[in-house]
Amino acid sequence: LIARVAVQRSAEVGKDWYTFKHDTPYSEINYSYRIICGKNYYGAGCSEFCRPRDDQFGHYKCSVNGTKICLDGWSGDMCEEAMCLPGCHPDHGYCDNPNECRCRLGWQGTFCDACINYPGCQHGSCSKPWQCNCEEGWGGLFCNQDLNYCTHHKPCKNAGTCTNTGEGSYTCTCPPGFSGTNCEIEYDDCERRPCLNGGSCKDIGIGYRCQCESGFYGKSCEHEADSCKTNPCINGGSCTEDEASYTCQCDAGYTGLNCEIEINECDQHPCKNGGRCIDQRNGFRCVCSTGFEGPTCSDNINDCVHDPCQNG
Questions:
Q1: What pTM does this model have?
Q2: Structure confidence by residue, pLDDT tens digits, 222-234
Q3: Domain made up of 42-82: CATH architecture
Q4: Radius of gyration over alpha carbons of the chain, in Å?
Q5: Which CATH architecture best describes the domain 266-300?
Q6: Matching CATH number, 149-186, of 2.10.25.10, 3.40.50.720, 3.40.718.10, 2.40.50.140
Q7: Rounded distance, CA 44 to CA 175, Å?
Q8: Model confidence over 34-64: pLDDT tens digits?
């Protein structure tokens, strides 16, 4: 044994070397040392432990001083909490992995901010899951009963008047001459044989017209007239006595034994080029289609008169 030395000193953990020399009468000892922490240990006394991981218990790496640095998309003390898709609803959405947004029961949408309607809801919405708040004009558990059926569907035909009765139902009030749920059935007014005294009946849609036998007049040929004394000529007609009866000289626009028939000038279809005919007393009026004019819509309007074409 040449020499023995025992020394007690303090030293900092680091990469720097500590160098010492020990002299004796017979020897000289030079030595160096440093303190380096073992793997995954950090700090002044190597007392801080940090091991990088990316599993169900955490998602982080370690800094040079041993603190945990969360990987992208993770947070929390142990970096175990995933950061959801930006905008994901904090109450109605959640995530197991970064940048996802998984909806809780009753919610939907990219950000889980839209509630799910009650199953079967047709014309409703919700502010909370499983609701069915009906839109205006709809009712019922599934908002499938049209409360304004008349406006949406216009079921009444032939100028019938529609009345909503609730819960998707309606009633039609039909004009004279029509019947049926939707006023779709037209009465044959001649079925009741309204023309008396041998008169012949003609159905005219809403009502009827009687062609009376000689010597009778009235809507249903109910009046008998053998002379001008009973004033049989109507609608301005003038009466002339004959040997056995009388004769009516009808005013313009009327015909028939007693001038009871108004002449419909539209029967001859005088309006041309798609014009609509409106019957008038002793005449007619045409409502012309676009591009035509004149009493019978026979004149083609020259649309180029006002030079509508521009830029050559």
A1: 0.41
A2: 887 667 877 888 8
A3: Ribbon (2.10)
A4: 52
A5: Ribbon (2.10)
A6: 2.10.25.10
A7: 103
A8: 888 889 999 888 888 999 999 999 999 999 8
Nearest to 39 by CA among 24, 27, 51: 51
Domain spans in the chain, listed from the N-terminal domain onward: 1-36, 42-82, 149-186, 200-263, 266-300
- The type of residue at 47 is S
Two tokens, residue 67: 């603190």
- Burial group, residue 181, by CB count within 10 angstroms (0-12, 13-18, 19+): middle
Polymer length in residues for the chain: 312
